[in-house]
Amino acid sequence: TKSFEKILIEVIILFMVIPRKINFTQMGRYGSHVEQTYRNAFGLKKSKCIDWLKLNVSLAKRFLGKQGRWAIAIDPSYISKAGKKTPHIGRFWSGCAQSVKHGLEIMGIGLIDIDTKDCMMLRAHQSLNNKELSLRNKTMVDFYISVIKRYRKELLKLSTLIVADAYFSTSTFVNGIKKEGFSLISRFRDNACLFYVYAGPRTGKRGRPKTKDGKIDMKNLDLTRMEKMEMKDIEGTAYTLIAYSKALRCKVRLVIWQMPNGK
């Protein structure tokens, strides 16, 4: 509606000028409408409310320009919040504090342009707390998959690649997004068990064919099985190969980056 469009334009301006926390109370103080007007505008039913994902996708396309090497980035973020009445409040992992803390969590979905090294925010989806997930017989990973499934139609138009941190490098998540048409780019956990892929002749004997050919020792790499990668403006040396992941139970394209500090 036109009334919502006017409020939306004003809200975008308020986001840039309001100091500290941004909420409906603050909007009522600094804006030209009362607090309840903003609450009513953003409390509309889905059929009457603006599609934020489509809006942000159109803005991202205008900013990034011609479609190049794009990928979808996801990252759950902890938000500090006191009290017990806020919807979905609970205990979530805080990366900054490296511990579980009381508050809220949102799952951010962004669009990455690899060539320009830019990322545009597309959507923020609030996470359910552990109690709510247990009532639905779901884990947090299951919930993250359901979020991607919810927005898959629009996201697949942009890219089939999802970039996430090491938390998501599990078979549950990889197989879950694979069903929706996506592939994962991530970092393996430090204790990941990886194997060289057997490339020798088949014996012809009965039984399952041999797929693994020795565990990969990160401190003693077999460079004859890898291809050195060319990297610009990045320190260190990188190698790539097809490896077998025990956790994912499948072959993966593995990149090993040896940094100057020895890691």
From TrEMBL:
InterPro entries per UniProt: IS701-like_DDE_dom
Domain of life: Bacteria
Pfam families (alphabetical): DDE_5
Domain Transposase IS701-like DDE: start-end pairs: 44-217
Name of the protein described by the UniProt record: Transposase
Species name: Segatella copri
